[in-house]
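help with this.
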Amino acid sequence: MRKFPITGVLLVVLLLMTLIVAGCTAFGNSKQGQCSQGNSCMYYTGSRGVITTLYQPPSIFYYRSSDRAQADSNTMDFNVKVVNDGASDSYGAVFISGFSGDMFKVFKIDSTNPSGKEITISKKRSSCYFDLMSLGKSIGQWNFLTGCLDSSVTRLGGTTNLNIGAQTFEKIFGGQPWFQKFGIGNFNIKMTDSGQLLDLGIGANIADFSIMGYGRSLMLLVSTLDFESLGGSTINMKGDNADFPGGDIDYKTFKVQMLDWPAGQDYYNLPYQVKSCYSYTTFVSPMICIDPNPFSAEKKVCTSQSYSWGGSQGAPVAVTSVQQTNTGKEVLLDITIKNVGPGTVWDVGYLEMCSPYYPGSVTPVMHDVVYIGFAYIGNTQLDCTNFYKVRLDPNTKTAKIMCRYDMRSADDIGSAYATPLKMELWYGYEETITNQLLVRRLN
């Protein structure tokens, strides 16, 4: 089986997962995009995702040669606070780097390793797998096999089978999710490329598909990316949303031990960095006017217009504008996407390479990629250009994509009406803190 990093095939998986995705809806009667979900709107503001800060970082590291023989000597702790400030759930890791392996050892301290576990880089890492059997000109022509843990998606000959297993749910939810207590073990979905549901199997008599909202469908797919073997301390965090108000807060501690002193020096300045690498999603849903007769003079409940957002949607990547054109046969949407946060956008398929310890080179192709995970008007999937993959301009950090809604294939009622555009973006994100430490020898 050929193995590939996570790339555009993720989009195919998410189009299937939209059966179990829920989110917030925004509304735009005017040219200013507005949210219409009552109290839930408070969570869809701001331009930050996961915020990582150094908590009272040390400024001086004292090395004592006389203590060198002691096992726990010449150490210093670096405390990191991690807050999920955005609306999406997130999965990723925090790293500390800049300490030479010849002179330092770095340990991760957590609840399972209170005395510290030394950071080592493994050459054998598990990950999601993707086997592309053939590639056509559109998503509907792809044949593939992809999976993580005990979950898999297989597409062959126009029919797709999706299975989500119990281990995957436990991985993404950080333990047994509530619905498994009622006997729900797995989900099986079989559907055609046109979206026709052929079979739906659930390992119990009840299910609540809303559990897959707030980016959890993406987290489900990336949850087996192995950051621990790449020197990271894993973060698996709930977002600040209606399901989990306030968002998750976590604390990471790295212990650094100096093993030896470089000859000929009494002190020196040592730069180091703390990096967070995580997967994230952005959800937006303005009301769109569908008008089968846009050139008629009759009075209508709505008219086509453009929408803009002055801020963000509770995430570092934002939909800044949607320009709508109604031809009578189709609705054309020109959508602008921008990195409005302080960090770097990653192609989520290459997110493991965000680790400073990854044994390979980072290239521009790995950055500035956003996937349109799903885009629907009502219950009809939109046809978006570039195979649902958007590459941001590295200078302006913006990109445009065009999505098309074919009214001829939809069950429209003949008169104008408003309906939500539902869109979720997928991406990886990196933020880095750079600091400096004065290292001094006392004896």
In short: The two ends are 58 Å apart (CA to CA). The chain has three helices and 28 strands. The first helix runs from residue 9 to 17. Residues 72 and 257 are 8 Å apart (CA to CA).
